[in-house]
Amino acid sequence: MEVHYKFKEARKACGLTQKEVAQALNVTAATYSRYENGLIQPDPETLKRIAVLMKTSVDFLLGSPSEDNLQTDNTAKQVMPAVRSDEKKLLGVYNILDQESKTQLKFAAII
């Protein structure tokens, strides 16, 4: 199954570079580039992390958006305020952090 063709679309929609995605996923830029160009495929866990980072579904990345996904995406766009690209990047990175890292970050923000 080839999934790479949706990666670039989702990444660009989030305003991220390949290097930023690679750093967030803790892979090399070359590895992420290979994912995006279809030379290698990410394992299922990495695929989930990519979906979270890019605020989309694995279904979308696999090229099969369901009607429910489309409806949810449209609803989210209507109720969420506009987010700057730098905010999108920060949210994307935050979303892939483990729970301990999120807790540490929240604590650091309070200080």
Explain what you see:
It contains 8 helices and no strands. The radius of gyration is 15 Å and the shape is globular. The termini are far apart.
Structure in a nutshell:
With 111 residues, this protein is mainly α.
Strand content: under 5%
Give helix % range: 55-70%
Q: Catalogue the unreliable spans.
A: 67-72, 75-80
> How many E strands?
0
How large is the count of helical segments? 8
Q: What is the averaged pLDDT score?
A: 78
Going by helix content, strand content and strand pairing, the class is mainly alpha
- Main sheet overview: none
Q: Per the principal axes of the C-alpha atoms, what is the gross shape?
A: globular
Secondary-structure element order, N to C: HHHHHHHH
Distance between the termini: 47 Å
State Rg: 15 Å
Summarize the SSE layout with pairings:
Blueprint lengths: L3 H10 L4 H8 L3 H8 L7 H10 L4 H4 L5 H13 L5 H11 L3 H12 L1
